[in-house]
Amino acid sequence: MSKYQHIREEAYQANMQLPKLDLVLFTFGNASAADRSLGVFAIKPSGVAYENLSPDKMVIVDFEGKTVEGNLRPSSDTLTHAVLFKHWDKIGGIVHTHSTYATAWAQAQRDIPVFGTTHADYTTADIPCAPPMSDEMIKGNYESETGHQIINCFSSRQMNYEEVEMILVGNHAPFTWGKTAAKAVHNSAVLEYVARMAILTEQINSGAPRLKDALIKKHFERKHGPDSYYGQS
Amino acid sequence: MSKYQHIREEAYQANMQLPKLDLVLFTFGNASAADRSLGVFAIKPSGVAYENLSPDKMVIVDFEGKTVEGNLRPSSDTLTHAVLFKHWDKIGGIVHTHSTYATAWAQAQRDIPVFGTTHADYTTADIPCAPPMSDEMIKGNYESETGHQIINCFSSRQMNYEEVEMILVGNHAPFTWGKTAAKAVHNSAVLEYVARMAILTEQINSGAPRLKDALIKKHFERKHGPDSYYGQS
Amino acid sequence: MSKYQHIREEAYQANMQLPKLDLVLFTFGNASAADRSLGVFAIKPSGVAYENLSPDKMVIVDFEGKTVEGNLRPSSDTLTHAVLFKHWDKIGGIVHTHSTYATAWAQAQRDIPVFGTTHADYTTADIPCAPPMSDEMIKGNYESETGHQIINCFSSRQMNYEEVEMILVGNHAPFTWGKTAAKAVHNSAVLEYVARMAILTEQINSGAPRLKDALIKKHFERKHGPDSYYGQS
Amino acid sequence: MSKYQHIREEAYQANMQLPKLDLVLFTFGNASAADRSLGVFAIKPSGVAYENLSPDKMVIVDFEGKTVEGNLRPSSDTLTHAVLFKHWDKIGGIVHTHSTYATAWAQAQRDIPVFGTTHADYTTADIPCAPPMSDEMIKGNYESETGHQIINCFSSRQMNYEEVEMILVGNHAPFTWGKTAAKAVHNSAVLEYVARMAILTEQINSGAPRLKDALIKKHFERKHGPDSYYGQS
Asked: Which of D121, D161, D213, D227 is the catalytic position?
């Protein structure tokens, strides 16, 4: 048995959640799971239908993007995953989808404003939309540069990837991450839900204000602060 | 067997309806069922997935919010339920969700206007949106204060909680109630349906008028007046 | 066995299609099937959940609205059905729902413009929205007057109920009909589909023009004219 | 066994995908599969419900629209398929639906702008909306002229049907095609998905810009250029 069986299994389970949660059409998405002690991650093979996936079809790739184990070609977005795993050393899973509402915000090139507590339960910030990449980046190593565009967006805004686990890449689509692949999938579903409510909020009240600071702080701390009291500890 | 078995079962059944009716993503919601003779209610444990629930996992809490029976931590919204049960002595069940359309109206901080008979079959009033809470309330006992915010909204508008069994908490999400937990769930689904039709109505006709008084009265009385003639009596 | 068994069965099957086609929430709708030789129709009992229906629970009512057979109270909308069956002698089935998009147009008090061939395949006219009823009509025999409001709308616009088998009642919701209950159900689903595309059309192009006359005529005649060539004849 | 069994099977499978992918209500769509060596295509019979289809019910038609084998009347849109198969000799399958969002763009008479990479993965161009047909064309051989309208639109815009495999016919609905019937179905689903995200994009940002040229080129070449690297080669 492969010594990567555990992340093959984890990546497989995460990928299979994407169609179940209505986050992908056909093969428009991919999830990965990393083992940092081994310096590799497992990722969906490119263009293979979800119903044909199995743990043994996951491709094992190192943080430079080199295939370590597997006969299939990894996701065309593999280098974006590799760059994020390499630079952000606390994340264990990444998900990329073209989910409808989050992608529409990315296409509109707008941050998603924090309009309510559902959003604040996950992050205190507007969900950032990185600007579309420069022509030089696009013509270069595109997928690798997509990863750098994400990292640069967080750096320039002084945002912390452990506090905000999601981003929109302008004109493209969302990426989410987390300590595990399962958490990254969870974040993708939440992002889609929040993105949908945000457009409805603006349609109901074009001048809808951002959530007040006290509520942003309160809700985030309910779930994440040192005194959090959500869930079973 | 627990002497609270009947409300454990009632709360369990009500909670299980929430994902079935598409009112919740993941664990974004909770239902409770009270036994007033015993002075307690059963409520969903915090952060436990619906597919992992069972009647014995419900937590029994008194109207001050103190856990009476159960090993799990109750919903983080428990104190809101407790305050409402304590102050409104005719209700037997409460539901809280972040359902998409109702939450969008809450985020937009607008009452839902009564645009048609579907709405009037349930209440003669616009569905109220309580203002976002003050910073003092937020920094205090937040969930308890959420309950007071709801009660204050009804008092200041001179509304009757037996005639209007639903509210939006500004920037947050809806709460509904009823004589039973099942009725509170029913009201949550109706609220979501009405909220969706209301935004569509304004999109089709930005100057759509409120329902005329004669129709509001007629439809409410068809279902609720002393001469009601809907359903099997 | 009841001599009304055939219309009990027909009405039952039609009612069961309504939740299957996503046209109703809970009990927000009803279908009826008439036997003109017997001068009666079968209709859903009031407020009974679809999953609890069976042919023997349908209520048999005459065209004056008097119950002829059955122990349950018939739909609260029964008199509307009765008036339509009585005045329009070519229809064999009627459906009433509060389906989301059609009801939103009714609440907006607007006719649904014929924007495309999907609509023209069914009717050459805009789908009419009858004005909300007068206070006198509402305070009178409300459900009976709803039927008269529908008939008056068709008369005043010189529309033919055999060519246009659907209407919106302003501030209320849609009614559809047809030679059979199954056709009335079919029309309800088409109306909801057309209503949804019409709002989207206006959102994409606020100045979208009505379909040109030549296309309206062509598509209607493909399906309905003496030289129709749609389907298996 | 019919010598057309292979395309009967292919057309059947393609048609059955349409309701599964939520692209059709009732019988509002049809798919065809051609065998160019035999000079014929198999197409759905007119007005037959999908659940009643089987391979042997497909109708075999030549590229002039003449039925070659089969007892049922072919789809009323058969001549449109025939014209496209006759003039565009690299396509093996065609799909026509009235899918909600694509049809709404057709009714709005607007091209769908390329707003993001999801779109650019399929085509570098805005998805064209052919103008509504002239009264002469409508009164002539309507379905045949619909095919010519599509071909004329591509000619006048100097577009290549192998690079852009989809079109909207103004006031009517979408047509898609591909090397196989399965690819034509795939394109119908992608078109609907892209059409939905495009309207949302404009609602979020009414001034949303088209995708920049470098990204359009990059994404299309990832999937389609000589150096494409998507999927398993």
From this structure: D121
